[in-house]
Amino acid sequence: MDQSPALAALSALAHETRLEIVRLLVRAGCRGRAAGDIAEAVGASASGLSFHLRHLEQAGLIRARREGRQVIYALDRPRMGALIGYLLSDCCADDAEVRACCLAVRTDPQEDFQLDEASGTAKI
Questions:
Q1: DSSP one-letter code for 15
Q2: Which residues pair with 64 in a beta bridge?
Q3: Most CB atoms closer than 10 Å: which of 8, 26, 33, 97?
């Protein structure tokens, strides 16, 4: 992934509703979710949802398909993986400590990373 598409994807993710949509679509797997279900889950109006979905589609993070009268949205997993890979390898220079923090399993998903002032390392 090049810098320009990475910036577009990061910009699309930099909004609370769009980030929640991505979280929802990750859990939905390849089957995706219907637009109406997404709107209900994230508490968005039809026009608001359309606005957010368009941003995510333009950034290449989600794909839409039609099933009958419904539009189903799913995460573009290869594209999300490419974004994460870009951040790790290009931006973070494949730093072993950063990679370890990404792979660490957290018991509390709401728990924030903390910096150990003495060692300068991240604690999870």
A1: S
A2: 73
A3: 33
**How many Cα atoms sit within 13 Å of 14 on the Cβ side?**
6
Q: Pull the structure tokens for residue 41.
A: 């889950």
Q: Where are the domains of the chain?
A: 3-78, 96-124
**Nearest alpha carbon to residue 99 among 110, 84, 114:** 84
pLDDT digits (tens, 9 = 90+) for 55-66: 999 999 999 999
pLDDT at 118: 53
Between the CA of residue 63 and those of 22, 38, 105, what are the distances in Å? 11, 14, 29
Domain 3-78 belongs in CATH node 3.40.1190.20 = no
End-to-end Cα separation, the chain, in angstroms: 28
pTM: 0.78
Cβ-Cβ contacts under 8 Å for 5 (sequence gap 6 or more) = 59, 60
